[in-house]
TrEMBL record:
Keyword Thylakoid in record: no
Residues covered by the C-type lectin domain: 42-155, 179-303
Pfam family, one: Lectin_C
Organism: Pieris brassicae (White butterfly)
Keyword Hydrolase found: no
Name under which the protein is recorded: C-type lectin domain-containing protein
Signal peptide bounds: 1-20
Keywords: Disulfide bond, Signal
Amino acid sequence: MFSIKFSFLLISANVIITFGEPPKQFFRPDYEKYMPETDSFYKIYTQHKTFDDAKETCELDGAELFYPEDEDEAKAVISYWQETQRFHWIIIGVHAPFAPDVFVTIHGDSINTVYKKWGQGEPNSFQVLKKCVILRHILSISDAVCNHLYPFICKKRASTIRWNSLCDLPNRSYKYVEQLGRCYKFHTNPKNWTEAFRACNAEQGYLAIIDSQAEADHLVNITRMANKEDVEGSYLRGAIHLGFVKKNSVWRSIMGRPLKALGYNMWGTNQPDGGDRENCGSMFFNGKLNDIGCNQQCFFICEREIPLLENSINLRFGDYGVVQ
């Protein structure tokens, strides 16, 4: 989490820092394992989750729930997790969503096209709940109950990376705003406040914080332009989750600063009005702030700073102790 918000891209003698394509063997900092033999990046998640939650977690990262395509990849990934973890198994991206004995990958391909070394007596998926698959450290796979909790691994194929140079991340949905020096993404998949906070963090951003009228105007504009009219489901129309909450009766940004200390503190008419029932922050479509129940589903906006790469600064301009 960032401690303060930066609004500049200029350093020293009005020199503009720009970002190009990343090195080939880079996806994002937390995907530390690159395997040249698969041309893919991997990340171990030690927090156990159900199949659906593991799949969603990987998707939020811009990756996919791992499954081995062949024995070589199975061996390599097992070796990777055994280096630091002592899991006996992980949940993988194979399941039987439509018939208990027809297993397919998360891409819809038959398991017969990928690694399928079933353990002895497996699968015994005639139990209706056992529609998912685990990979054991002994190289075999078994069917498993989808709603049980398992560790898992996310995978990103290097060939699918599309770099966003202006926002310096592998996600082209973020749009750089020169006037504000930041990047933004409007999410049209409604979530509650905590889920929205988690989604922004997974994308290497954070729930948007308004600190100027110019920023408020921009968020109003991207809200107006978002393709949201046909979104179905049960959610609150007219409000957008933002990055502020009420702590000890004081409204603060997720960076910890009181809203009154920011450059924008424009509440809607008679807001806040929810008392202890509404402790999370949002804005109306017109940009005015609104308190909201933290479990309320609605749209949200993520924001991302443009990171100043210290090594690049040192390389180009010398070791400046302070950015001007």
